[in-house]
Amino acid sequence: MGTLHYRADEDAFSLHIVVMKEVEQRGGDRVIGVDLNLKNVAVTSTGAFFDGGELLWGQNHYFRVRRSLQDKGTRSAKQTLRQVSGRETRFVSDRLHTISRRLVEEAQSHDCSYIAIERLTHIRDRMDHGNDRIKRQMHNWAFRELQEMVAYKAVEYGISVEDVNPAF
Questions:
Q1: How many domains is the chain built from?
Q2: Which of 20, 48, 51, 164 could be cross-linked to 44 through a Cys-Cys bond (beta carbons 3.0 to 4.6 Å apart)?
Q3: What is the rounded distance in angstroms from the CA atom of residue 160 to the CA atom of residue 151?
Q4: Looking at 92-96, 132-136, 160-164, which range is the least confident one?
């Protein structure tokens, strides 16, 4: 089932198609553990590191741009702020999609049927100390978005994703 939309103001078509796919759950009990961090976004139990340096650089870059534009306060600065906000969101989302795809490929290459990702619920509440830069990075950390991306991509390959206590 799908829909076709035409927007006269943009003179563009958009097509939305929903595809249902039968996926067979993988048998076995092989598990890949994933540790989430700021510097290395993900580290797996197989020894794979997924660098987050570019992601941190981008978030710091857009923070500096935002701060500069907010100091100006002009109408054009506010318009540019809206554009920058969209750019930052797309930048982070693109990097997380790439990392999540590579994580699922890593699990698939090791014939794993489960991905265990550490549960980081309320981690921001425990970060009241530290300098402002660290606090900002913690609050901008999109770990939940990464977990959700891994989960929906893993389903395609019959891999289950579980949140586990970080103590394990």
A1: 1
A2: 48
A3: 7
A4: 132-136
Per-residue pLDDT of 43-52, as tens digits, reads 888 888 988 8
Query: How many other C-beta atoms are found inside a 10 Å radius of the C-beta of residue 108?
Result: 16
Where do we find the tokens 């990392």?
99
Domain that holds residue 45: 2-164
- Picking from 141, 148, 122, the residue whose alpha carbon sits closest to that of residue 39 is 141
pLDDT digits (tens, 9 = 90+) for 51-94: 888 887 888 888 888 888 888 888 998 888 888 888 888 888 89
SS3 content of the chain, % helix, strand, coil (to 5): 50, 20, 30
CB 44 within 8 A of CB 99: no
